Amino acid sequence: MTAFARNQWYVAAYGREVGRELLGRTILNEPIAFYRTEPDGAEDGAASTGTVVALADRCVHRRYPLSASRLDGDNVVCGYHGFTYDTSGTCVFVPGQKRVPRTARVASYPVVEQDSLVWVWIGDPALADPAVIPRAPWLADPRWTTVGGMEPIDAGYGLLVDNLMDLSHETYLHGGYIGTPEVAETPITTEVDEGAGIVRVSRHMDDADCPPFYARSTGIEGRITRWQDIEYHAPCLYLLHSRIAPVGVLPEADGSDPNAFHVEITYAITPSTDRTVYDFWAVSRDFAQDDDEVTTFLHDFNRTVVRQDVDALNLLQQALDTEREGYQELSINIDTGGLAARRILARLAAEGERTTTPSTAVAAP
Amino acid sequence: MNTAEVYRIDWLPGTDVLHGVCHCGAERSAEDPVELWQWMLAHPDGHHLAPEQKGTIE
After folding, report:
1. B7 vs A192: CB contact, 8 Å cut-off?
2. From CA A303, how far away is CA A153, in angstroms rounded?
3. What ipTM was predicted for this assembly?
4. I want to staple A237 with a disulfide (CB 3.0 to 4.6 A). Which of A11, A134, A207, A255 is the partner?
5. What pLDDT, in 10s, does the model give residues A296-354?
6. What share of chain A is helix, strand, coil (3-state, %, to 5)?
7. Is residue A87 within 8 Å of A37, Cβ to Cβ?
């Protein structure tokens, strides 16, 4: 199993998922309840959207899930006995008595909403620095049209990292969708920026078959030049910069690229439990932005592709669970990027262990 | 954002050979990515070989 890296930011949800209903997500084995405060200025119609709050998802009283409770203004009222918490997690009301026990509070988590994603800090809150959250600006840029979703997978998150760092699997697992023979055949270049915690894997196909995913969305007929440039910001954010153009069409000398189609494929790989991971996926394009048919096609087609990964990784985890400890693997050239990612994750996990204090403040009686 | 500590491995087209370049400038070729990463990340151990000693890992 790949160890968790604490003291890191993780994507907990899309911003659109968090509203005035409580949302429960388990991240790095920590159950968390998310909600959005009431919009400012709602009465005069000039509303902001409110801010996202993240509280430990267990009432201090009898551990009832707060995500199964209700909101009263910006406070959470436990659905079992009515213990009430403010946005900082401080209990402000208990039933039947005036004195609220001093220890009655649940942990609150640092949260940042950025690029349409809700990021939560798992670890020591004092170490949370929003400036280090990696960016995916196209997700909230009107010049791009984005479709996306989230699929839970019953597998350790390391299997999803392996999957995404080695796209040669497209040829076999996703043949007829996004895979063509050239993906597995084309050599890759791998770079590790140790200080920044970034792994880059590039595969540039000069003359490749155009898979249905791109043929039907771009309208290109015939063979293509296809570039895949992965940028993995460990541990959570994975960016695949995809460039598609008719064969031989390259960027201009000045760096502009008006004759190519660009697709930004964004994944957030968020460990949930030891054996489950949230697979957030989004596909953003800079062409046919207003074409609803293309939007629907890319959403449905990509969801099918993600489901193929889900099925494969569910199966793989089941198989690994039956393996004896210390089972052997065999790595070849296609694994160069995945091996680099594994090592960075191991380093981040070790660093997170060294600096962590428990973020769950509530002790059992 | 890039930091100074960048390791790079190129899979040489038309071959099964991986060519690694450490941020210190040391280079090495191999056909096993596990072995090449081990050498790369051992920096600085083994990264200051005389030119005639550089070469393919056996």
Report:
1. yes
2. 13
3. 0.87
4. A134
5. 999 999 999 999 999 999 999 999 999 999 999 999 999 999 999 999 999 999 999 88
6. 25, 30, 40
7. yes
